[in-house]
Amino acid sequence: MHQKVLGTVGLMALISGCTSNEIHFEQRSTLESSVSSLVLYDDGVVGHASMNEQTCKFDTFAGMILADNDIPSPDERIADTRGEIALAISDAGIHVLDNEGWNQPEDIPLTGVLGAKMTAEGFATLRQDGDGCRVEWRNDTLLAATGLDNGVCDGLADMTVNFDANTVWLSSDNQVLRLDRDGSTTVIDASGDQVAFDATKQLLYVATTGAEEISAYNEDNSLAWSIEAKGAVHDLTDLGARGAAVAVLDSGKGAFLDAYESASGDRIAHYQLPALALAEFSMDASSLALITDERVYFYDTVEGEAPVRFNEVDTEPADMFEERTFAE
Protein backbone atom coordinates (compact mmCIF):
# COMPACT_ATOMS: atom_id res chain seq x y z
CA MET A 1 0.00 0.00 0.00
CA HIS A 2 2.89 2.36 0.71
CA GLN A 3 4.94 3.63 -2.24
CA LYS A 4 8.70 4.02 -2.27
CA VAL A 5 10.03 7.49 -1.51
CA LEU A 6 12.26 9.20 -4.06
CA GLY A 7 15.59 10.63 -3.03
CA THR A 8 17.26 11.60 0.20
CA VAL A 9 16.10 13.87 2.97
CA GLY A 10 18.00 16.73 1.37
CA LEU A 11 16.34 16.15 -1.98
CA MET A 12 12.97 15.99 -0.28
CA ALA A 13 13.49 19.44 1.19
CA LEU A 14 14.30 20.77 -2.27
CA ILE A 15 11.33 19.35 -4.14
CA SER A 16 8.70 19.77 -1.42
CA GLY A 17 6.78 23.01 -1.31
CA CYS A 18 3.42 24.59 -0.68
CA THR A 19 1.16 26.77 -2.75
CA SER A 20 -1.02 27.99 0.13
CA ASN A 21 -0.12 30.45 2.86
CA GLU A 22 -2.90 29.29 5.18
CA ILE A 23 -1.33 25.98 6.21
CA HIS A 24 1.97 24.45 5.18
CA PHE A 25 4.43 21.94 6.58
CA GLU A 26 8.10 22.14 7.52
CA GLN A 27 10.18 19.00 7.85
CA ARG A 28 11.26 18.18 11.39
CA SER A 29 13.11 14.85 11.18
CA THR A 30 13.23 11.44 9.51
CA LEU A 31 12.86 7.97 10.99
CA GLU A 32 15.04 5.72 8.84
CA SER A 33 12.95 2.59 9.17
CA SER A 34 10.09 0.89 7.38
CA VAL A 35 6.95 0.72 9.53
CA SER A 36 3.72 -1.18 8.99
CA SER A 37 1.56 0.99 11.30
CA LEU A 38 2.08 4.13 13.37
CA VAL A 39 0.33 6.53 15.75
CA LEU A 40 1.38 9.86 17.25
CA TYR A 41 0.51 10.76 20.82
CA ASP A 42 -1.73 13.82 21.25
CA ASP A 43 1.13 16.34 21.52
CA GLY A 44 3.01 14.92 18.52
CA VAL A 45 6.31 14.61 20.39
CA VAL A 46 6.45 10.80 20.55
CA GLY A 47 4.49 7.85 19.21
CA HIS A 48 4.49 4.11 18.69
CA ALA A 49 5.06 2.14 15.49
CA SER A 50 5.12 -1.49 14.46
CA MET A 51 8.37 -2.29 12.67
CA ASN A 52 10.71 -5.22 12.14
CA GLU A 53 8.41 -7.52 14.15
CA GLN A 54 8.66 -5.19 17.14
CA THR A 55 6.59 -2.32 18.54
CA CYS A 56 8.80 0.71 19.04
CA LYS A 57 8.41 4.06 20.77
CA PHE A 58 9.96 6.91 18.77
CA ASP A 59 10.73 10.62 19.03
CA THR A 60 9.54 12.93 16.24
CA PHE A 61 12.02 15.77 16.85
CA ALA A 62 15.10 13.62 16.24
CA GLY A 63 13.53 10.69 14.37
CA MET A 64 15.00 8.27 16.93
CA ILE A 65 13.83 4.98 18.40
CA LEU A 66 13.43 5.38 22.16
CA ALA A 67 12.40 1.86 23.17
CA ASP A 68 11.60 -1.56 21.72
CA ASN A 69 8.63 -3.60 22.94
CA ASP A 70 8.77 -7.20 21.78
CA ILE A 71 5.07 -8.11 21.63
CA PRO A 72 5.17 -11.87 20.95
CA SER A 73 3.06 -11.86 17.81
CA PRO A 74 4.15 -11.60 14.17
CA ASP A 75 1.06 -9.64 13.14
CA GLU A 76 0.68 -6.86 15.72
CA ARG A 77 -0.29 -3.43 14.44
CA ILE A 78 -0.86 -0.11 16.17
CA ALA A 79 -4.56 0.67 15.98
CA ASP A 80 -5.19 3.92 17.89
CA THR A 81 -3.99 6.40 20.50
CA ARG A 82 -5.37 8.84 23.07
CA GLY A 83 -3.39 11.04 25.41
CA GLU A 84 -0.23 9.00 26.06
CA ILE A 85 -1.85 5.60 25.57
CA ALA A 86 -1.62 3.50 22.41
CA LEU A 87 -3.53 0.36 21.45
CA ALA A 88 -1.97 -2.46 19.46
CA ILE A 89 -3.93 -5.44 18.17
CA SER A 90 -2.81 -8.91 17.17
CA ASP A 91 -4.13 -12.43 16.95
CA ALA A 92 -3.75 -12.52 20.74
CA GLY A 93 -6.08 -9.56 21.34
CA ILE A 94 -5.51 -6.01 22.62
CA HIS A 95 -2.15 -4.73 23.86
CA VAL A 96 -1.88 -1.46 25.82
CA LEU A 97 1.24 0.69 25.52
CA ASP A 98 2.22 3.93 27.20
CA ASN A 99 5.36 5.86 28.14
CA GLU A 100 6.42 2.98 30.39
CA GLY A 101 6.22 0.52 27.49
CA TRP A 102 4.22 -2.70 27.32
CA ASN A 103 3.60 -5.41 29.89
CA GLN A 104 2.13 -8.76 28.91
CA PRO A 105 0.02 -9.14 32.10
CA GLU A 106 -1.97 -6.08 30.99
CA ASP A 107 -3.10 -7.68 27.71
CA ILE A 108 -6.81 -7.99 26.99
CA PRO A 109 -7.17 -11.42 25.34
CA LEU A 110 -9.72 -11.39 22.49
CA THR A 111 -9.93 -13.56 19.40
CA GLY A 112 -10.69 -12.34 15.91
CA VAL A 113 -10.00 -8.63 16.42
CA LEU A 114 -10.04 -6.85 13.05
CA GLY A 115 -9.98 -3.27 14.35
CA ALA A 116 -9.94 -1.32 17.63
CA LYS A 117 -10.47 2.35 18.48
CA MET A 118 -10.47 4.10 21.84
CA THR A 119 -13.71 5.62 23.15
CA ALA A 120 -14.78 7.60 26.20
CA GLU A 121 -15.76 4.32 27.88
CA GLY A 122 -12.74 2.30 26.87
CA PHE A 123 -12.55 0.99 23.33
CA ALA A 124 -14.64 -0.37 20.47
CA THR A 125 -13.60 -3.43 18.49
CA LEU A 126 -14.71 -5.09 15.29
CA ARG A 127 -14.46 -8.85 15.79
CA GLN A 128 -15.13 -11.94 13.71
CA ASP A 129 -14.92 -15.44 15.10
CA GLY A 130 -17.11 -18.51 15.55
CA ASP A 131 -19.85 -16.29 16.97
CA GLY A 132 -19.96 -14.15 13.82
CA CYS A 133 -19.15 -10.53 12.96
CA ARG A 134 -19.89 -7.78 15.47
CA VAL A 135 -18.87 -4.45 16.96
CA GLU A 136 -18.26 -4.55 20.71
CA TRP A 137 -17.96 -1.66 23.13
CA ARG A 138 -15.65 -2.60 26.01
CA ASN A 139 -13.68 -1.46 28.98
CA ASP A 140 -12.26 -4.30 31.05
CA THR A 141 -15.56 -6.10 30.40
CA LEU A 142 -18.08 -6.26 27.55
CA LEU A 143 -20.51 -3.30 27.70
CA ALA A 144 -22.55 -3.74 24.52
CA ALA A 145 -22.42 -5.53 21.16
CA THR A 146 -24.11 -5.17 17.78
CA GLY A 147 -24.14 -8.12 15.41
CA LEU A 148 -23.40 -7.68 11.70
CA ASP A 149 -23.47 -9.82 8.59
CA ASN A 150 -20.20 -11.69 8.14
CA GLY A 151 -19.80 -9.94 4.82
CA VAL A 152 -19.15 -6.66 6.65
CA CYS A 153 -16.11 -8.15 8.36
CA ASP A 154 -15.01 -9.96 5.19
CA GLY A 155 -15.10 -6.73 3.18
CA LEU A 156 -13.78 -4.36 5.87
CA ALA A 157 -11.68 -1.50 4.52
CA ASP A 158 -11.59 1.13 7.28
CA MET A 159 -12.89 2.02 10.76
CA THR A 160 -13.24 5.28 12.66
CA VAL A 161 -15.04 6.49 15.81
CA ASN A 162 -16.51 9.50 17.54
CA PHE A 163 -14.57 9.15 20.80
CA ASP A 164 -17.07 11.05 22.99
CA ALA A 165 -20.28 9.64 21.51
CA ASN A 166 -19.01 6.04 21.25
CA THR A 167 -20.19 5.98 17.62
CA VAL A 168 -18.44 3.66 15.14
CA TRP A 169 -18.27 3.96 11.35
CA LEU A 170 -17.17 1.10 9.11
CA SER A 171 -16.44 1.10 5.40
CA SER A 172 -16.99 -2.32 3.86
CA ASP A 173 -17.33 -3.18 0.18
CA ASN A 174 -17.59 0.57 -0.54
CA GLN A 175 -20.58 0.89 1.84
CA VAL A 176 -20.46 3.07 4.96
CA LEU A 177 -22.22 1.87 8.12
CA ARG A 178 -22.82 3.83 11.33
CA LEU A 179 -23.19 1.91 14.60
CA ASP A 180 -24.36 3.70 17.75
CA ARG A 181 -23.84 2.54 21.32
CA ASP A 182 -27.62 2.02 21.72
CA GLY A 183 -27.51 -0.83 19.18
CA SER A 184 -28.79 1.01 16.11
CA THR A 185 -27.15 0.48 12.73
CA THR A 186 -27.52 2.94 9.84
CA VAL A 187 -26.35 2.61 6.26
CA ILE A 188 -25.21 6.11 5.29
CA ASP A 189 -25.98 7.42 1.81
CA ALA A 190 -22.28 7.41 0.98
CA SER A 191 -19.80 5.14 -0.73
CA GLY A 192 -16.11 4.83 -0.06
CA ASP A 193 -13.39 2.62 1.37
CA GLN A 194 -11.78 5.33 3.53
CA VAL A 195 -13.45 7.09 6.47
CA ALA A 196 -12.12 9.65 8.97
CA PHE A 197 -13.99 11.42 11.78
CA ASP A 198 -13.25 15.07 12.54
CA ALA A 199 -13.91 15.36 16.29
CA THR A 200 -13.34 19.13 16.25
CA LYS A 201 -16.03 19.82 13.66
CA GLN A 202 -18.15 16.68 14.19
CA LEU A 203 -17.91 15.65 10.53
CA LEU A 204 -17.34 12.30 8.87
CA TYR A 205 -15.07 12.41 5.81
CA VAL A 206 -15.47 9.71 3.14
CA ALA A 207 -13.45 8.92 0.00
CA THR A 208 -12.71 6.05 -2.36
CA THR A 209 -9.11 5.06 -3.06
CA GLY A 210 -8.26 6.00 -6.64
CA ALA A 211 -11.27 8.27 -7.09
CA GLU A 212 -11.20 12.09 -7.09
CA GLU A 213 -14.17 12.83 -4.82
CA ILE A 214 -14.10 13.67 -1.10
CA SER A 215 -17.31 14.15 0.90
CA ALA A 216 -18.24 15.31 4.40
CA TYR A 217 -21.31 14.22 6.40
CA ASN A 218 -23.03 15.90 9.35
CA GLU A 219 -24.02 14.29 12.65
CA ASP A 220 -27.49 13.56 11.21
CA ASN A 221 -25.83 11.66 8.32
CA SER A 222 -26.77 14.37 5.78
CA LEU A 223 -24.25 15.51 3.18
CA ALA A 224 -22.37 18.66 4.27
CA TRP A 225 -20.30 19.04 1.10
CA SER A 226 -18.63 17.12 -1.68
CA ILE A 227 -15.67 18.29 -3.73
CA GLU A 228 -13.59 17.11 -6.65
CA ALA A 229 -9.99 16.63 -5.57
CA LYS A 230 -7.05 17.56 -7.78
CA GLY A 231 -5.96 13.96 -8.08
CA ALA A 232 -6.80 10.39 -7.13
CA VAL A 233 -7.16 9.80 -3.38
CA HIS A 234 -4.39 7.66 -1.90
CA ASP A 235 -5.05 8.34 1.80
CA LEU A 236 -7.69 10.25 3.80
CA THR A 237 -7.45 11.59 7.35
CA ASP A 238 -8.34 14.63 9.48
CA LEU A 239 -6.20 17.47 10.81
CA GLY A 240 -6.80 16.84 14.51
CA ALA A 241 -7.76 19.88 16.59
CA ARG A 242 -7.36 22.15 13.56
CA GLY A 243 -10.55 20.71 12.09
CA ALA A 244 -10.02 19.94 8.40
CA ALA A 245 -10.08 17.06 5.95
CA VAL A 246 -6.70 15.97 4.60
CA ALA A 247 -5.95 13.76 1.59
CA VAL A 248 -2.80 12.45 -0.04
CA LEU A 249 -3.40 12.64 -3.79
CA ASP A 250 -1.87 11.15 -6.91
CA SER A 251 -2.23 13.91 -9.52
CA GLY A 252 -0.63 11.97 -12.32
CA LYS A 253 2.19 14.51 -12.23
CA GLY A 254 3.21 13.97 -8.62
CA ALA A 255 2.00 13.36 -5.08
CA PHE A 256 0.38 16.11 -3.03
CA LEU A 257 -1.08 16.58 0.45
CA ASP A 258 -4.19 18.77 0.32
CA ALA A 259 -6.26 20.07 3.24
CA TYR A 260 -9.89 21.20 3.00
CA GLU A 261 -11.79 23.60 5.24
CA SER A 262 -14.34 21.64 7.25
CA ALA A 263 -17.19 24.13 6.80
CA SER A 264 -17.05 24.41 3.02
CA GLY A 265 -14.61 21.91 1.53
CA ASP A 266 -12.49 24.80 0.19
CA ARG A 267 -8.86 23.83 -0.25
CA ILE A 268 -6.64 25.52 2.35
CA ALA A 269 -3.33 23.71 1.76
CA HIS A 270 -1.60 22.15 -1.23
CA TYR A 271 1.77 20.62 -0.42
CA GLN A 272 3.96 18.68 -2.84
CA LEU A 273 5.38 15.36 -1.64
CA PRO A 274 8.34 13.39 -2.96
CA ALA A 275 6.15 10.29 -3.32
CA LEU A 276 2.83 8.82 -2.26
CA ALA A 277 2.58 8.19 1.49
CA LEU A 278 0.14 7.58 4.32
CA ALA A 279 -0.52 10.59 6.57
CA GLU A 280 -0.97 10.61 10.36
CA PHE A 281 -1.54 13.78 12.42
CA SER A 282 -1.22 14.23 16.16
CA MET A 283 -4.48 15.18 17.84
CA ASP A 284 -3.24 18.70 18.61
CA ALA A 285 -2.48 19.02 14.87
CA SER A 286 1.09 20.19 15.52
CA SER A 287 2.79 17.14 14.00
CA LEU A 288 2.44 15.20 10.75
CA ALA A 289 3.96 11.81 9.98
CA LEU A 290 4.27 10.74 6.34
CA ILE A 291 4.75 6.99 6.10
CA THR A 292 6.48 5.47 3.08
CA ASP A 293 7.83 1.98 2.40
CA GLU A 294 11.33 2.85 3.51
CA ARG A 295 11.09 5.62 6.12
CA VAL A 296 8.84 8.05 7.98
CA TYR A 297 9.07 11.84 7.61
CA PHE A 298 7.95 14.09 10.47
CA TYR A 299 6.76 17.66 9.95
CA ASP A 300 5.64 20.72 11.88
CA THR A 301 2.24 22.09 10.92
CA VAL A 302 2.70 25.79 10.19
CA GLU A 303 0.24 28.69 9.90
CA GLY A 304 1.88 31.93 8.88
CA GLU A 305 5.57 31.82 9.72
CA ALA A 306 5.87 29.59 12.78
CA PRO A 307 4.85 26.11 13.94
CA VAL A 308 1.62 26.20 15.92
CA ARG A 309 -0.29 24.00 18.31
CA PHE A 310 -4.05 23.84 18.52
CA ASN A 311 -4.70 23.43 22.23
CA GLU A 312 -8.38 22.51 22.35
CA VAL A 313 -7.55 18.85 22.96
CA ASP A 314 -8.89 16.61 25.70
CA THR A 315 -5.91 14.35 26.32
CA GLU A 316 -7.45 12.28 29.10
CA PRO A 317 -7.76 8.60 28.16
CA ALA A 318 -10.64 6.49 29.35
CA ASP A 319 -10.49 5.59 33.05
CA MET A 320 -9.75 1.94 32.30
CA PHE A 321 -6.43 2.97 30.74
CA GLU A 322 -5.66 5.86 33.07
CA GLU A 323 -6.06 3.66 36.15
CA ARG A 324 -4.25 0.57 34.86
CA THR A 325 -1.50 -0.69 37.16
CA PHE A 326 1.42 -1.87 35.07
CA ALA A 327 3.49 -4.78 36.31
CA GLU A 328 6.98 -4.10 37.56
Topology:
Layout (H helix, E strand, L loop, with lengths): L8 H7 L1 E2 L5 E8 L5 E4 L5 E6 L2 E6 L4 E6 L7 E6 L2 E6 L2 E6 L2 E2 L5 E2 L3 E6 L4 E7 L2 E7 L3 E7 L1 H5 L1 E7 L4 E6 L2 E5 L5 E7 L2 E5 L4 E5 L5 E5 L5 E6 L3 E7 L5 E7 L4 E7 L5 E7 L4 E4 L5 E5 L4 E8 L2 E2 L11 H4 L6
Antiparallel strand pairs: 1-27, 2-30, 3-4, 4-5, 5-6, 7-8, 8-9, 9-10, 9-11, 12-13, 13-14, 14-15, 16-17, 17-18, 18-19, 20-21, 21-22, 22-23, 24-25, 25-26, 26-27, 28-29, 29-30, 30-31
Give the overall silhouette. Answer: globular
Main beta sheet: 5 strands, antiparallel
* Order of strands in the sheet with most strands: 1-27-26-25-24
Distance between the termini: 38 Å
Report the CATH C-level class of the domain at 1-26 and 192-299.
Answer: Mainly Beta
CATH architecture of the domain at 1-26 and 192-299: 7 Propeller
Low-confidence stretches: 1-21
User: Could you name the CATH topology of the domain at 1-26 and 192-299?
Assistant: Methylamine Dehydrogenase, Chain H
Percentage of residues in strands: over 45%
Please give a quick description of this structure:
The chain is mainly beta. Helix content is 5%, strand content 53%.
Explain what this protein looks like in three dimensions.
With 328 residues, the chain is mainly beta. The chain has a domain at 1-26 and 192-299: YVTN repeat-like/Quinoprotein amine dehydrogenase (Methylamine Dehydrogenase, Chain H), CATH 2.130.10.10. 5% of the residues lie in helices and 53% in strands. The protein contains three helices and 31 strands. The protein has helices spanning 9-15, 150-154, 319-322, and strands at residues 17-18, 24-31, 37-40, 46-51, 54-59, 64-69, 77-82, 85-90, 93-98, 101-102, 108-109, 113-118, 123-129, 132-138, 142-148, 156-162, 167-172, 175-179, 185-191, 194-198, 203-207, 213-217, 223-228, 232-238, 244-250, 255-261, 267-273, 278-281, 287-291, 296-303, 306-307. The strands form seven sheets. It has a five-stranded antiparallel β-sheet with strand order 1-27-26-25-24. Strands 2, 28, 29, 30 and 31 form a five-stranded antiparallel β-sheet that branches. Strand 30 and strand 31 (306-307) form a beta hairpin. Residues 1-21 have low confidence and may be disordered.
